[in-house]
């Protein structure tokens, strides 16, 4: 029996896995540099909190949103809480759980990092067309569900957190730069 197709598929699977592993580490490292005030993992933890209804910001729900364990989420939340960007309080719905809230200084740091995230995304995906971005996203969701569990993603719009007037202007400027970089990419094709 000829197993050449299976061997080729296995080779591509191994290469995809190894490349994905390396890419994720590289993106996390570069994100840490971009964000400065938070690590990439801390930033995404706070993004996850913003994408959950206020009374459902439990450690279990945050962990599920991030695709990680409760222990990992708890460790991340603890490190952010020590910096004063989060606080925990007993859940009103479940006496065994705590809800995680973003503090005022947490809102400020998220506004700062949110602007930096726009520049990071523009740099990270500068070689991708809109169609390639959509394909990549769909393929990653498909990969996530290899075990039958669908990703509890970030598609919903996060509730607005208070942004000072000058921060709104910074975000507008960042979006204009992002649009300009995407336009230049479109012109070169």
TrEMBL record:
Lineage: Bacteria, Bacillati, Bacillota, Bacilli, Bacillales
One Pfam assignment: MarR_2
Gene3D superfamilies: Winged helix-like DNA-binding domain superfamily/Winged helix DNA-binding domain
Keywords assigned by UniProt, alphabetized: DNA-binding, Transcription, Transcription regulation
Presence of keyword Nuclease: no
Protein name stated in the entry: MarR-family transcriptional regulator
Keyword check for Phosphoprotein: no
Organism superkingdom: Bacteria
Occurrences of domain HTH marR-type (ranges): 1-145
């Amino acid at each position: 029996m000829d197993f050449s197709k299976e061997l080729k598929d296995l080779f591509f699977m191994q290469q995809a896995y190894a490349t994905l592993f390396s890419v994720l580490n590289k993106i996390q490292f570069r994100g840490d540099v971009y964000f400065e005030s938070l690590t990439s993992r801390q930033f995404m933890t706070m993004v996850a909190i913003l994408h959950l209804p206020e009374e459902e910001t439990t450690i279990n729900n945050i962990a599920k949103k991030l695709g990680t364990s409760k222990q990992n989420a708890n460790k991340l939340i603890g490190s952010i809480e020590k910096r004063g960007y989060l606080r925990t309080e007993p859940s009103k719905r479940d006496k065994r759980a705590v809800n995680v809230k973003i503090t005022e200084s947490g809102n400020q740091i998220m506004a700062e990092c949110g602007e930096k995230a726009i520049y990071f995304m523009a740099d990270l995906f500068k070689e991708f067309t809109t169609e390639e971005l959509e394909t990549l996203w769909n393929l990653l969701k498909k990969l996530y569900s290899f075990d039958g569990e669908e990703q509890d993603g970030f598609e919903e719009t996060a509730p607005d957190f208070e942004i000072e007037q000058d921060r709104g202007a910074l975000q507008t400027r960042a979006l204009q730069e992002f649009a300009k970089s995407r336009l230049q990419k479109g012109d070169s094709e």
